[in-house]
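Try it yourself: sequence plus magnesium ion, in.
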Amino acid sequence: MLEIRDLHASVADKPILKGLNLTVNPGEVHAIMGPNGSGKSTLANVLSGRDNYEITGGEALFEGNSLAEMEPEERAQAGLFLAFQYPVEIPGVSNMEFLKAALESVRGAQGKEEWDSVTLLRQARAACKQVNLDASFLKRGVNEGFSGGEKKRNEIMQMMLMEPKLALLDETDSGLDIDALQVVAKGVNSLRSPERGIVLVTHYQRLLDYIVPDFVHVLYNGQIIKSGGKELALELEQKGYGWLTGEEESA
Ligand code: ADP
Ligand code: MG
Ligand code: MG
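Structure, out:
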């Protein structure tokens, strides 16, 4: 489903990813961990097609198609839900208007039935309920004045409605409280299915107490230096990253 081969990428002309390999098959949940500054968010941004993130070598294929050649909207239409694909804040555009446009684009491209406004509202309200977000948030400007936890709930709500084939979430260390973490976990777990791949970039071992991954990868200095099963996350929690990176202490 997702095949990343020898990927090299730069941010503002600075090489960050230096030969990264990763394969994600349908049904699999992968966690990508690693010390601060190792390139985790860069990977998420490159796959999202964010401005200023440039692939300089290797390839990232989604169902055989090169992501580098797809616009962010085409990536969404192909069934990807990626970190930062959805703008952080769009003042003046309500959450509901935004969802309507995004769902029309994606469902249309995938040949799924169009939701009329009644269905859309029902689905959106149900998704809000699942993430404990009051339905009044549907009327507000996208992410406008949302707290960190509300933005996170909103993102997971969007993801649930989009029903992606592959979801990639970047869980930064920006101080999500335990409630928000559990919302992420609940949302991700509800999307687990044999047809769907999930990549969770995370700085938290704690999140993996709630989302048990099939595979854990350690990203360091722009490469995946170790892969294992869920037990690797526990080992990292006990031992840190130094035994893998050769550094005494790592953040
Ligand atoms: P992680 O998510 O693993 O903590 P990042 O991908 O955020 O790591 O960062 C990897 C490296 O890329 C860091 O050295 C960071 O300073 C650098 N970097 C990230 N974004 C930019 C940018 N926009 N301009 C310059 N350097 C950047
Ligand atoms: Mg970081
Ligand atoms: Mg990061």
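One thing you can check immediately is this: The longest strand covers residues 14-24.
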